[in-house]
Amino acid sequence: MKKIGIASDHAGYEMKEFLVGYLGAMGYEVLDFGTHSPESADYPDYAHPLAEAVERGEVERGIGLCGSGEGMTIALNKHQGIRAGLVWDPEVATLIRRHNNANVIVLPARFVTNDEAVHMLDAYFSAEFEGGRHQKRIDKIPVACK
Q1: In Å, how far are 14, 68, 102, 123 from 18, measured between CA atoms?
Q2: Is 145 a catalytic residue?
Q3: CA separation for the pair 27, 12 (Å, rounded)
Q4: Cis previous bond, 35, omega within 30
Q5: What residues have CB less than 8 Å from 121, skipping those under 6 apart?
Q6: Options 66, 79, 119, 145, the catalytic residue
Q7: Of the listed 48, 79, 99, 119, which one is catalytic?
Q8: Which strand ranges, in their side-by-side order, compose the sheet holding 104-108?
Q9: Catalytic residue flag (residue 36)
Q10: Strand runs (DSSP E) across the chain, as ranges?
Q11: pTM for this one?
Q12: Which residues face 3 on adjacent strands?
């Protein structure tokens, strides 16, 4: 069974709750980093613990959600071991995995339906990193910029 981490702010809360149930039904073990209510919450407070769990290997991959997806993506990508990609359709979800070896998928909860989110997650989790020329490109991303 794969262990997946998930985190959202208030804008992604309802979709997160739906996805936790969906992923559990699909046989995934889900570690929920919050938020745990629809009350206003700041996405970095949930992005950072998710990113740290991915970096430590406590979860295989992660899912982030916020209103536009941008804030969560920015916060996640501040972590050295994270390659988070913002997606809006299944093709992009596949490509962030196949070409970028993304270890976190981010969904714009205010702009996609639960059904669309499921299709994107299915595409992301079924895709495999292609390596080769794509690995060469990832290797050019510095650990820290000067």
Answers
A1: 6, 18, 22, 17
A2: no
A3: 22
A4: yes
A5: 19, 22, 23, 63, 93, 105
A6: 66
A7: 99
A8: 29-32, 3-8, 61-66, 104-108, 84-86
A9: no
A10: 3-8, 29-32, 61-66, 84-86, 104-108
A11: 0.94
A12: 29
Tens-place pLDDT, residues 3-58: 999 999 999 999 999 999 999 999 999 999 999 999 999 999 999 999 999 999 99
Rounded to an integer, what distance in angstroms lies between the CA atom of residue 100 and that of residue 64? Answer: 17
Hey, how many other C-beta atoms are within 10 angstroms of the C-beta on 98? 17
Task: Give the position of tokens 């988070």.
Answer: 84
Q: What is the CA radius of gyration of the chain?
A: 14
A 10 A CB-CB count for 39 gives: 8
